[in-house]
Amino acid sequence: MGLTGLEIFKQLPKTNCKDCGHPTCLAFAMAMAAGKAGLDQCPHVSEAAKEALGAASAPPVALVKIGTGEKELTLGNETVLFRHDKRFEHPTGIAITVSDTAGKEEIAARVGQINKLVFDRVGQLHSVNLVAVTNDSGDADKFVAAVKVAAENTAYPLILITEDTAAMEKALEVVGSKKPLLCGATAANYEGMTALAKKYEAPMVVKGADLNGLAELVEKVVALGHKQLILDSGAREVHKVLADQTQIRRQALKRFRPFGYPTITFVTNEDPVQAVADAAVYICKYAGIVVLQTADPADILPLITLRLNIYTDPQKPIAVESKIYEIGNPGPDSPVYITTNFSLTYFCVAGDVEASRVPGYILPVDTDGISVLTGWAAGKFTPEKIAEMLKNSGIAEKVSHRKVIIPGGVAVLSGKLQELSGWEVLVGPRESSGIPSFLKQRWNV
Ligand code: SF4
């Protein structure tokens, strides 16, 4: 169990100086006990207090990194059970398996297929994160050969799946510098596997036969001096995995240290539809990594979309950059549309402008990512901000006319905007789906 707010408070300077962003030391202590503040936010805390509060200030789920370079995957630092309590910090890493029973060309082709699993969703690129090489052959040399081919053909971090310490050692001689995830340590091999993980400073999966076995094994591995761990409860049936994932997160938040690490789950269902459904459960319920056998884009896209939804910060709307967007190949006579930079709003407008088959310019005003009517009600979508965008975006150099179309829902802005900007303001349809017919009736330059 972690320290209570009062226990933390006793260790603080009690000056109420507010430098931590909290009104009092007690408020800060309470926030820290709830996992919503870190000790480093108080610049005045003594060394003795730092030592005493170290465990309480550490995140309930440790931060673990896999791989190196641009595609390095970061997991952990989670502080809540439910996304709406704050947010989930690091999205579930999606791993796709590559078996060492396949030939070199087949492995290279499969890895190439995995590399292509990149999708554009609301203006952002989303992809899978890891390539998991499995030692299905049971042969160390075949495993090393497969690991080598995979590493040569992808920039994604690798998961090395073998419980054979000798095979793992040989594979690490080839790819150890890339900090792959060792998968992993069991009750039978943990000493040798931990020694390898320490030698290469690589993260390691600890697999228990059940939750009790897992907790015991984690304590043994930590006692050997390795803390970059990922937990595998050993469960493979969806109901058992769900129960274990939930229990691990709950206990981690209660500061039960053996469970204070990200988790890994394996989708083993042979029914392809059920496999995607199982993976969806794991993404929703705390899996740090989901290992899948499918590399079919039709299976991966829904999971990536789900992950995007679950791991979006509920306090921060998804926004597009506030700049000129060209739809089609617009020219000097093309219409100019104003909207807000809330992603869903922007993409609705962009889709409907495209559907009109009349190339145009869209200028999403920065409203901190909120929609048209909310932005107007919050004073973030104002004639002043729209006029500023018309002036500073450079749109005046791109078009020869001075007509701008605003959303019908904010017709009330038109008079002031016209006065401030000098542009003729056309009040567009209330819904962007009305843009095609609006253009036919009202647009002529
Ligand atoms: S910065 Fe430290 S001393 Fe100042 S109010 Fe916050 S907890 Fe108290």
UniProtKB/TrEMBL annotation:
- Residue ranges annotated for the 4Fe-4S domain, each copy included: 1-59
**SUPFAM superfamilies, per database record:** Dihydropteroate synthetase-like (SSF51717)
Could you give a single Gene Ontology term from the biological process aspect? Answer: methylation
Q: Does the keyword Zinc apply?
A: no
Q: Does the entry feature the keyword Methyltransferase, yes or no?
A: yes
What are the GO MF terms of this UniProt record?
A: methyltransferase activity
Keywords from the named record = 4Fe-4S, Cobalt, Iron, Iron-sulfur, Metal-binding, Methyltransferase, Transferase
Stated EC number for the protein is: 2.1.1.245
Read off the InterPro entries from this record: 4Fe-4S_dom, Ac-CoA_synth_d_su_TIM-brl, ACDS_complex_subunit, AcylCoA_decarb/synth_gsu, Dihydropteroate_synth-like_sf
The name on file for this protein is: Acetyl-CoA decarbonylase/synthase complex subunit gamma
